[in-house]
Amino acid sequence: MTYVIIGNGVASLGAIEGIRRVDQKGKIVIVSAEDVTTYGRPLISYLLAGKIGPERLALRGPEYYEQNNVELKLGTTVTALDTAKKTVTTDKGETVAYDRLLIATGGVPFVPPIPGVKGEDIYSFTTLAHAKTLIELSAKIKRAVVIGGGLIGLKAAESLHDRGVSVTIVELAPRILSGGFDEKAGKLAGNRLKNVGIEVNCGVTAKEIQRGKNGRVKGVLLTDGRFLECDVVVVAIGVVPASSLAKEAGVKVERGIIVDDKLMTSAKDVYAAGDVAQAKDQLTGEHRVVPIWPNAYNQGFASGRNMAGAKQPYQGGLPMNSISFYGLPTVSVGMVNPPEADKNYDVIAQLDEAKETYRKLVFHEGKLVGYVLVGDIDKAGMYTAFIKFEMKLDDKAKDELVNAGPEVFLWPPELFNQTWNPEPAKAAR
Amino acid sequence: MKRVYPNKDVCIGCHICELACITAHSKSKDLILAYTVERGQNGLSSCKHVHEAGPVCVALSCRHCDEPACVAACISGALRKDPETGRTVYDREKCVGCWSCLMACPYGAIARHPLEPKIVKCDLCHDRPGGPACVAACPNQALKQEER
């Protein structure tokens, strides 16, 4: 059995670990455009900020690939996929045959068609190569504008600021972190950034990137008429699935590559996982692209196991983000911004601006379905349990959860016993 | 693999497991120094936590899950599964303190280190002769390490 994996992000790593749970012998071949073994992609902001050195980026040790019998074809791009012949062709002219294929090509930065966006001095921040470029650049530039106030944009801004660059963020939405967080959490995080001197502008975006006669960036003209002088622009609006290879091969693609409950695509023996896949969401049961780290690993793992023949469905992903802004920790899990008009949701939010703490709990039909924590995040995982295990809460249990916190004794007795002190035959591992 | 199983029906909430844990993970290996000095100076803290609700109590720590949510969530490679021992192992040097594991673990088994951007998590006292200190110290056999 030969497994070919395209891409070497965390979904690819999860796939290796999933395959090896079931099949210790089969050959695994990784073909990756990036010329480096799997690294902690979110660590590029730590690298850019100077908090860690490049030696800490690798996600597994140097012996890992050999131990797991993985052949690496790095710096190699797959140019074509033939699902009938079961082969992939690379830019080096090589044809690789597979029995099972995993497409884990991730996402590519979305760059909107702003006038002036094409050309020099425009950067993204999603790969190690981008981080290295920005590190070199940061010594030479004074001012940067970051377009996009989501997680990538804010981390890019923070890291550049740490390198001594004066940074301004522009965000089209009325608040930063509009995706996974809510207004109050966004404000607390935004205050931290403002306090260190990062300018945050919401409700505006770039109308035009203006360039001098030499073609270099002079600054960004905003939709409200202001002009922000800068040397470089970092575009961090988000990522879109890198699905063109699959599309060209006739694999069914909507927003991402469509997969079934075993992560197999519309083509037999071709699987997809991670930011490129449109996979099941646990809470809604819908298939969506949710480009977050744990989902990518879990989808990779589940696809790996299924490619190796385990027939175990993927249980579905749960959106979750944990990120700190200048020492202020924030966690967001599940459904955190329910539709306001929907009376079936019950939201309990407590903000303490002086202490910089915030807790928001979102209930739906007697279950916790989402939460946000800022500042005091120590009980995050215990809140996650109530969402992940979809625990039904009566009014008393809900009151206790709200007032006393997510105590383990609120769990149903069967789940408690099975988890913590099971009969040997029933042990949940 | 042998895991540590807590029994709430016989736990008496004495917190001796927590003291045994900090002693086992201290530099001095001395209970009094661990508690009075290292706790404050080095942020030494227990991997085990006694949960109480009225008369019921139970001492919980990392379950060393077969498919750990913390490993999936770890962005730095600090947490991984050791295929040989089955333990969920933590490499302190690699950890960047992003708290993703703490968010993902539905068992509340991961804590922030009080002083550094690191986590505190049970290592099953893997290098301690005689196995986990909490199990050895429990006066009522509420903690058992066995194969189930």
Polypeptide structure, described:
The complex is a heterodimer of chains A (429) and B (148). Chain A has 429 residues and is an alpha/beta fold. Chain A has 3 domains: 2-108 and 240-307, 3-Layer(bba) Sandwich (FAD/NAD(P)-binding domain); 122-237, 3-Layer(bba) Sandwich (FAD/NAD(P)-binding domain), CATH 3.50.50; 330-426, 2-Layer Sandwich (Enolase-like, domain 1), CATH 3.30.390.30. Chain A contains 11 helices and 26 strands. Chain A has a 5-stranded parallel β-sheet with strand order 3-2-1-7-19. The longest helix of chain A is centred in the last third of the chain and has 15 residues, at 293-307. With 148 residues, chain B is an alpha+beta fold. Chain B has 2 domains: 1-61 and 122-143, no CATH class; 64-111, Alpha-Beta Plaits (2-Layer Sandwich). Chain B is built from 5 helices and 8 strands, in the order E-H-H-E-E-H-E-E-H-E-E-H-E. Chain B has a two-stranded antiparallel ribbon with strand order 1-8. In chain B, strands 2-3 form a two-stranded antiparallel ribbon. In chain B, a hairpin with a 6-residue loop joins strand 4 (79-81) and strand 5 (88-90). In chain B, helix 1 (16-24) packs across helix 2. The model of chain B has no long low-confidence stretch (mean pLDDT 97). Chains A and B meet through helix 1, helix 8, strand 22, strand 23 and helix 9 of A and strand 3, helix 3, helix 4 and strand 6 of B.
Name the CATH superfamily classification of the largest domain in chain A: FAD/NAD(P)-binding domain
> Measured on Cα atoms, how large is the radius of gyration of chain A?
23 Å
Number of helical stretches of at least 4 residues of chain B: 5
Count of extended strands of chain A: 26
Number of distinct helices of chain A = 11
| Mean pLDDT across all amino acids of chain A | 96
Question: Within the CATH hierarchy, at the fold level, what is the topology of the largest domain in chain A?
Answer: FAD/NAD(P)-binding domain
**Structural class, judged by helices and strands of chain A?**
alpha/beta
How are the strands of the largest sheet of chain A arranged? 3-2-1-7-19
Assign a percent range to the helix content of chain A.
10-25%
User: What is the strand content of chain A?
Assistant: 25-35%
Characterize the overall form of chain A.
Answer: globular
Hey, roughly how much beta strand do the residues of chain B contain?
15-25%
